[in-house]
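Re: the 267-residue chain
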Amino acid sequence: MEDFAYFLLIASPFGAAYLWIRWYLPFFSDRLRRIRPNPVFVPMMIVPLLCTAIIFLALKSFAASDVRDDSFYLPMYLALGLAWIGVGEWLFRLMGISAIFDVLERANRAAFFAVAGALFGLSFCYSGGNIGEGPGTEAVLYAAGLATIAYAAVWWVYATLTQIDYAVTMHRDDASGVRLGGFLMAAGLILGRAAAGNWVSYAATFVDLIRYGAPVLLLLLAAVVLEPRLRPTADAPARSVLAYGVLPAMVFVTGAIIYLVEGTFPL
């Protein structure tokens, strides 16, 4: 396990370069610019840079002491994080939302909000797995991996029970996109914090993720209960983005931040 984890760390710059070159190439396609104006074209280019900043700040401020100021390990773990969210973005398609097809090719603004929130949430999951002292790469992969699996599971349950992904991709409802993005950011904050802390053992990390990540179930319950009252209907196909999107998203994210600030967590 240790040798495989170290191999992934060494290979991560190449994986990150491959994934993100493929990500950015369509942005320079004249064909996409000719098809239709895309108001989220530039913001979509910026989101991965913000994710990079989130991961870098977490590594520089809270990672293990032998990583924070090391000229080899710090960029390597940053590259691993970029590869992590690059693979995650590719897997988002399994949830029914694609940055390339929905955001870039179809100029779907609602999908942009959802994808941006999903990328930020995934960045929080990976960053949390790097916070604290630990024995090496295998500890990071395990902690961040557990958080990411839980993150994907919560997203899948939310989408399955509410069909919010259809409101985003088919109906292009901006409020639904903002709401989904806010939910995913909040889930990433909670699960990333649950994955953080000094390493004890595989079992202890698993127990801590369940214990300190449990509030994500309350978040999921609130989102599922609210969704029938917030989704677009035949009588109101275009909901107010502020009232039905921004406000619920702010409630989700604020609740997660309050939990992080007021909660009691192990070191």
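Residues 111 and 168 are 6 Å apart (CA to CA).
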